[in-house]
Design brief:
Elements (H helix, E strand, L loop, with lengths): L1 H27 L5 H24 L5 H9 L5 H25 L15 H23 L6 H23 L5 H11 L5 H23 L25
Helix pairs in contact: 1-2, 1-4, 1-7, 2-6, 3-4, 3-8, 4-7, 5-6, 5-8, 7-8
């Protein structure tokens, strides 16, 4: 358990330091990274974190993912709160380091509702819904490797950040939004990014269960059902 939580802290730290750090550097350098560069950075750092930490922690790095996989029966209830706390600690630590490195940065890569409050709320619900469907569908592919999972999830994060980032920030991750908001002291719109992603993630689980998931055949009375291997974005609990 301790190792799994440590991996969630470090993995979320890496994700937030790389992703929000790209936003900070882009702002202080006059746009040298550009918006497509920021979106690609988020996708790449998510893929790298899944490959680096997935075998040990399940590579959630996102409270919305943890809650959704708990709803789907892939995470034990006793593990949910500790994992969410670990993820939030990693995100806050990343923002604290960015504050120390770039004291002139005001928002630290904070997600804000540029498109308007409710437009941003609906966007965040929808973006997280697509992300969770991707996670669940890739996990359902027999023999899918960690590399395939990392590429698929990283690509979806980059794609969604590319087109929706200018409107709502494309957080899809309460911890990723919590860190910059808490450290910068700008929490006015934080409720959007704490509430919308879990709703979208839960909707992804519901739609997957109702319409996309095949009912597994009953195990043979002679041959025992094989135990599924734990892969990234699943639980070791």
């Amino acid at each position: 358990m301790k190792q799994r939580l440590a991996n969630e802290v470090i993995g979320t730290f890496v994700l937030c330091f790389g992703g929000t750090g790209a936003i900070v550097v882009n702002n202080v350098s006059g746009g040298s990274i550009t918006h497509p560069g920021v979106a690609l950075t988020f996708g790449l750092v998510v893929a790298a974190a899944i490959l680096a930490f997935g075998a040990t922690s399940g590579a959630h790095f996102n409270p919305a993912v943890t809650v959704a996989l708990w709803l789907d029966g892939k995470v034990a209830g006793r593990s949910v709160l500790p994992q969410i706390v670990a993820q939030c600690c990693g995100a806050i630590a990343a923002s604290l380091l960015l504050r120390a490195l770039f004291p002139a940065a005001t928002t630290l890569g904070q997600t804000m509702p540029v498109a308007g409050v409710w437009q941003s709320f609906v966007l965040e619900v929808t973006l997280t819904f697509i992300l969770l469907l991707t996670i669940l569908r890739v996990a359902a592919v027999p023999g899918a490797s960690s590399l395939v999972t990392a590429i698929a999830v990283g690509a979806v994060v980059a794609l969604e950040a590319m087109f929706a980032g200018p409107m709502c920030g494309a957080s899809m991750n309460p911890a990723r939004s919590l860190g910059p908001a808490v450290v910068s002291g700008q929490i006015e719109s934080l409720w959007i990014y704490l509430s919308a992603p879990p709703l979208g993630a839960a909707a992804g689980v519901l739609i997957d269960r109702l319409f996309l998931r095949e009912v597994p055949p009953a195990p043979s009375a002679i041959e025992p059902a094989p135990s599924p291997a734990v892969r990234p974005l699943e639980s070791l609990a």
